[in-house]
């Protein structure tokens, strides 16, 4: 069974922060994801920093089953507040996150979510490695990821690739945040 199928099948085991809930992405989320993705405060940190069109997001979601990735929407009550994903699940799994609603940014929610997703990834799904690809100008996230135990794995002119092993997550991140 592919990692995507297992991830989705066991999604109910992914803990959400208190007061929040998860939902697997679907076409109904397209407008809000486009809004978040095109927010200048977010767009500048995206690897693909072109504006996303609604019709492109809908086409992506219509063919979602073809992609080796899982995207989940975080809800507070009935309001979507962010989207989180792991892509390249069966090759070089890469974590991505957008706290889309500005009033939820800078309050530690991203840290809580990352901890819960990584616990699910490493401890529930028993995976060994996860990567993060960040624009060099996103120094805050790069520094944060290194503090979690990520190690620099590569870079090019614009991006830094970081790698987190399961043992480093358990020995650094779980101790740091629990």
From TrEMBL:
<dbReference type="Pfam" id="PF13302">
    <property type="entry name" value="Acetyltransf_3"/>
</dbReference>
<feature type="domain" description="N-acetyltransferase">
    <location>
        <begin position="26"/>
        <end position="142"/>
    </location>
</feature>
<dbReference type="InterPro" id="IPR016181">
    <property type="entry name" value="Acyl_CoA_acyltransferase"/>
</dbReference>
<dbReference type="InterPro" id="IPR000182">
    <property type="entry name" value="GNAT_dom"/>
</dbReference>
<dbReference type="GO" id="GO:0016747">
    <property type="term" value="F:acyltransferase activity, transferring groups other than amino-acyl groups"/>
</dbReference>
<protein>
    <recommendedName>
        <fullName>N-acetyltransferase domain-containing protein</fullName>
    </recommendedName>
</protein>
